[in-house]
Amino acid sequence: MKQVIDFVKTNREKEKQPAESLGFGKYFTDHMFVMDYDETRGWHEPKVVPYQPLTLEPSSMVFHYGQAIFEGLKAYRTQDGKVQLFRPNKNIERLNFSCQRMSIPTLDEELVLDAIMQLITIEKDWVPDGEGTSLYIRPFIIATEPYLGVRSSKRYKFLIILSPVGSYYGGDQLKPVKIYVEENYVRAAKGGVGHVKTSGNYAASLKAQEEAEALGYDQVLWLDAKENKYVEEVGSMNIFFKIKGEVVTPQLNGSILSGITRSSVLQLLEYWNVPVSERKISIEEVFDAYYRGELEEAFGAGTAAVISPVGELSWNNQKITFAQDRSDNIAKRLYESITNIQLGKEPDPFQWTLEVK
Ligand code: COI
């Protein structure tokens, strides 16, 4: 039976920003979804309420032991004014996967989809229609029990907030990004939580990100924690290399995030009969391929970043600069195809989109 989601309407609607000043994650819509968990009631009282600050005890466990997970997906305004989501079930599945690894009680997937649909229906006017814009959806769960012993919390809050966004890196969506291969810090080790969308992974990445930025780079490329040799992922996206016509991406190994854009890229490449492989790839192999003239392209893929071509890759005092004007540019083809499907400009052969009615 469908659960009823209560709705309390705001009495103060906010002003919407023009598309060109959106940036990423700076503005929030009028309402949010919230649902609480406790041991006797389970997940209960789902509701949409005015977007507002939370009141939490300072002893809430999330502040001390970081039991927190999140997701990121988007709603798009199509050419004919409809609103649609891109593969929301994949995000909801991954949210529950994160719950399991972080000892958080799982959610009813149907209810989560219903909550997203109802919230977007209420906030439909917030879905922007400018070039490269969308409404970013951020579901997240935090541990709220007031307690200082180390164990999993007995109380949680699940929230969904919405943010109208433009490009993640600023400027043109296809602006090439400069990437620094990190050799001192590691992001995740096998058996840890690198494959889980938990907040601490991002906290642990900030220092390396700041140091890379100080050197003029946009993002860090992480290597494996054991040998400091194999490519894992970039701070906010999965990474792909095109070597002699084949697209190679690191295989999911328990420390890499299983990106939904990553899986869409792999599916599209197979559909187009482009050779593709998910395997271990060392940073040395990438640079060797470059010196042999066989490295044709590199790009990242993620919900926030969409498809981002790599302009420069720096490792161990060596630098690769990628030409962006190749006629066989696969990043541009992928970007266009994925965004055209998201915007309803191109047929959706995989039934990836879901209209919000
Ligand atoms: C996303 O792509 O949605 C992410 O969650 C990555 C980043 C913004 C944290």
From TrEMBL:
Tell me which stretches of the chain form a coiled coil: none
Q: One of this protein's Pfam families, by short name?
A: Aminotran_4
Q: Which GO terms describe its biological process?
A: isoleucine biosynthetic process; L-leucine biosynthetic process; L-valine biosynthetic process
InterPro entries reported for this sequence:
Aminotrans_IV, Aminotrans_IV_CS, Aminotransferase-like, B_amino_transII, BCAT-like_C, BCAT-like_N, BCAT_family
GO MF annotation terms = branched-chain-amino-acid transaminase activity
Specify the enzyme's EC class, one word. Answer: transferase
Cofactor(s), names only, from the UniProt record? pyridoxal 5'-phosphate
Q: Per the UniProt record, which EC number(s) apply here? A: 2.6.1.42
User: What residues bear N6-(pyridoxal phosphate)lysine in this entry?
Assistant: 197
Alphabetical keyword list: Amino-acid biosynthesis, Aminotransferase, Branched-chain amino acid biosynthesis, Pyridoxal phosphate, Transferase
Q: In which pathway does it act?
A: Amino-acid biosynthesis; L-valine biosynthesis; L-valine from pyruvate: step 4/4; Amino-acid biosynthesis; L-leucine biosynthesis; L-leucine from 3-methyl-2-oxobutanoate: step 4/4; Amino-acid biosynthesis; L-isoleucine biosynthesis; L-isoleucine from 2-oxobutanoate: step 4/4
The catalysed reaction is: L-isoleucine + 2-oxoglutarate = (S)-3-methyl-2-oxopentanoate + L-glutamate; L-valine + 2-oxoglutarate = 3-methyl-2-oxobutanoate + L-glutamate; L-leucine + 2-oxoglutarate = 4-methyl-2-oxopentanoate + L-glutamate
Q: Which family does it belong to?
A: Belongs to the class-IV pyridoxal-phosphate-dependent aminotransferase family.
- What name does the UniProt record give this protein? Branched-chain-amino-acid aminotransferase
Gene name per UniProt: ilvE
